[in-house]
Amino acid sequence: MSSFGETAVPLGPRQADLPGVAVAALGGGHGLYASLAALREVVGDLTAVVTVADNGGSSGRLRSEFGVLPPGDLRMALAALCGDDDWGRTWAEVLQHRFAGDGDMRGHAIGNLLIVGLWELLGDEVSALDWVGRLLGARGRVLPMAVTPLDITADVRRPDGPDGTPGAVERVRGQVEVASSAGRIVNIQLDPPDPQACPEAVATVRDADWVVLGPGSWYTSVIPHLMVPELRRALVGSRGRLAVVLNLEGQPGETAGYGPEDHLAALFEHAPDLRIDTVVADPRTVADAAGLTRTVADWGARLVVADVAADDGSPRHDPARLAQVFRTLMA
């Protein structure tokens, strides 16, 4: 039911269970949304560092027309940080609303337009996002991982030929194209390869008590953070602990058939110097708990197997269950 028509004002930030813990959550899309919806209930200092390579839908159109960062994943992160009161629910609904009809506005999300409008008005991505957060009464801050427009490219091995020989490796360009590629992704790159990291994001990651990586689209939302040189250095040199939240299943077209070990292998292939403290997996994804424990231990981390999946059968994490895991880890 819509909350429009009700008059409410922000009630201020909820008292977090762990007010002194600073967390940086990295990712994009629905995966980051779940992490933020969980973390906002647990910690008092929360910052989302969001991938900015989307080239499809409303974000792609605005990026192409105005030469700006794609706002869609930033919008979703802001919506995730809205409170559970009338004010927060209303603004989350407003941000996510997409125009219908058959004209040029069809498919545009109101939140995307709001963000791009403030970018034009203020001329600064970070200040504009902070202003949107203040308007929403957001329980945290949202930052782009980079301030340079960028694209994702991937080397994709096509399916085997009719005689069983390995398929050819082809270069695919664009987040949408990579996510929907037919074949197995060998590796990804960013174009340009050295985009300018958001300075505030670098500082946040460097100084965080915990950094949370994942869940989400592995090659197009999670791993890209490791490909921004300055952000990568901050991750590797961070004084805090790093928790990796694994996906519940492989994603068609991007990580089809991937299990926990495959997700971890892809992560370390792109960042072998990454130091992980904890890996979180749902029991329904773990076929060999002892084997996965050994694999995780080989990387110097510990495995936490916990029921974090939603009850509706979808491959999405339940924020309340994920919050309980974070609460136990970070206490």
TrEMBL record:
Gene3D superfamilies: CofD-like domains
Compartments (UniProt record): Cytoplasm
Highest rank taxon of the organism: Bacteria
Main location: cytoplasm
Protein name: Putative gluconeogenesis factor
Pfam families from the UniProt entry: CofD
Keywords: Cytoplasm
Similarity section: Belongs to the gluconeogenesis factor family.
Function, in words: Required for morphogenesis under gluconeogenic growth conditions.
PANTHER family: GLUCONEOGENESIS FACTOR-RELATED, UNCHARACTERIZED PROTEIN YVCK-RELATED
Species this chain originates from: Nocardioides imazamoxiresistens
Alphabetized InterPro entries for the sequence: CofD (IPR002882), CofD-like_dom_sf (IPR038136), Gluconeogen_factor (IPR010119)
HAMAP family xref list: Gluconeogen_factor
Keyword set includes Cytoplasm: yes
